[in-house]
Amino acid sequence: MSRSTRTLLIVLSVALNIAFVAVWALHRLPIGCGHHASRRLVRGADFACPFHERIRATPAQRQEIDRRLEAFRKASIPLCMEVNKHRLELIDLLAAPEPDRTAIAAKQRQIAHGQSQMQERVIANLLEMKAALTPEQQKTLFDTIRARSDCAGHGPMAMGMGTNPPYR
Predict the structure, then answer these.
(1) Which of 2, 8, 116, 120 is most buried as measured by Cβ atoms within 10 A of its Cβ?
(2) SS3 track for the chain
(3) What is the pTM of this model?
(4) Can you name the CATH fold of 7-144?
(5) How many Å apart are CA 104 and CA 41, to the nearest integer?
(6) pLDDT digits (tens, 9 = 90+) for 96-152
(7) 19 near 83, Cβ under 8 Å?
(8) What's the CA gap between 69 and 76, in Å, rounded?
(9) Can you give the pLDDT at residue 32?
């Protein structure tokens, strides 16, 4: 395998992994209680949520966090689907008998643009959520995100640099 092909495959792998991480983050980062949030809003039930308990959210804060998270997820689905569509198109371009490097580069730019948009949405959502929390709750939120933001066990927690146990 030539050096340029290996480099291209590494870049492709990184791009695909970033898209995967963006989707994973929507469902796993401790910024709400996932599918429980919509059930609580619809039924008015009081589900136990480890994240709400961890930051000691008031009932009003719980409702606000869940409302924002649900809106964020719904608004992010089309962008996520678009990035995934571009990823599949990139794979098709790479699988072609004679890959078109110009088309591949253009597709990479489309994927990177979508990932950048998703990152902006995540940041905006976190800033909105932060505004609804006290300084102590904000610290807990960001400490939790730091603890969960390692890369397959190779992040700060794996190196002994973290101070809080991961959110579970």
Answers:
(1) 8
(2) CCHHHHHHHHHHHHHHHHHHHHHHHHHHCCCCCCHHHHHHHHHCCCCCCHHHHHHCCCHHHHHHHHHHHHHHHHHHHHHHHHHHHHHHHHHHHHHCCCCCHHHHHHHHHHHHHHHHHHHHHHHHHHHHHHHCCCHHHHHHHHHHHHHHCCCCCCCCCCCCCCCCCCCC
(3) 0.61
(4) Four Helix Bundle (Hemerythrin (Met), subunit A) (1.20.120)
(5) 44
(6) 999 999 999 999 999 999 999 999 999 999 999 899 999 999 999 888 888 877 664
(7) yes
(8) 10
(9) 46
Tokens of 63: 């409702």
Distances (CA, A) of 125 to 16, 51, 68, 154: 23, 16, 8, 26
Enter the tokens of residue 92: 């098709």
| Domain boundaries of the chain, sorted by first residue | 7-144
